[in-house]
Amino acid sequence: MACAAVLFSSAPQTHAQQETDLQNEPSWEAVNQEIASGQFGQVTSLVVSRDGEIVHEHYFDDSPEAARNTRSVTKTITGMLVGKAIEEGHIASASAPVLNHINHTPLNPDPRKDAMSFDALLSMSGPLECNDSMPWSRGHEERMYSIEDWVGFFLDLPIRGFPAWQTKPEDSPHGRAFSYCTAGTVALGAAVENATGEKLEDYARRTVFDPLQIETAEWQYSPLGLAMGGGGLGLSSRSLEKIGRVYASGGVFEGRQILSSEWVETSITPKAVVPDQDGMEYGYLWWLRDYAAGDTAYKAAQMSGNGGNKVIIIPKLKLVTVITKTDFGQRNAHQQAEELFESRILPLILADSN
């Protein structure tokens, strides 16, 4: 296994030189040079660990301690907090109604809202018309930001409809119709806050960050002061690696059970199929897909945020990879990060194992 290394500036190579290095003798230095050339977009940091040990670390902006705004990577941490609240008995189960823990009367009440479960919002398959992938959706997150009460915004949305050209939940794999909804994750954060009686940021610090020795967490807040569970939490790349390591190791960090193994397992088990993304499924606020190395496919789970930000885990290998980027709003940002992992990082890790 390669030794841990914290590397900063390096002289750029031509693309031909980089390809020659990778073909002749794949190395972390060659990968660093490719990244620095911009081949994979604006990567700011790369942290790779295996079996709980950092095997490679490089900061392309010379800022190892920086709190990275990795956007929707935050959602997975909110899912983690739901799991902790269930584990501690504050929430009955993932099938419990979310409105049991939110004091809000919707403008357009409906029994399906009353029955809306944590499971539905964790798996992005709730009953409300909310889809960040469609700019005309009533529940699009950009509409939420312009009003004061973000939780009320979500709960006041109408029920989703399914025209003939869309697959209904009962006809979908896993019995759920996926619809990516940041506002729903904001509501999950509010429900955790109300269920536990602690501010979301305080609950996160007590149950997750302090046990992981994460000292800096820069939250964003709604106009009403709710910590934003749907995105924008600033954490260092090393802190993100620790979060990933918990899930890659069955909930354990340095011998301590941070999260129940049952919650970890169910979180990274497919709950819905993501439409128009071949092979992509969704768990509890985790994106799920396979990565190939030769003839072998490795099941991976990933935290993912705008700009191509990724925390990718392969539990079978106890592998965690943190890729932070600033390609916000760029169409190919995620593909670049995933290509970097599959074509460069995973082969190096496997080579180090031989």
From TrEMBL:
Gene3D superfamilies: DD-peptidase/beta-lactamase superfamily. Residues 45-331 form the Beta-lactamase-related domain. It comes from the Bacteria. Pfam families: Beta-lactamase. InterPro entries: Beta-lactam-related, Beta-lactam/transpept-like, Diverse_Enzym_Activities. PANTHER family: BETA-LACTAMASE-RELATED, BETA-LACTAMASE-RELATED DOMAIN-CONTAINING PROTEIN. This is Beta-lactamase. The lineage of its organism: Bacteria, Pseudomonadati, Pseudomonadota, Alphaproteobacteria, Sphingomonadales.
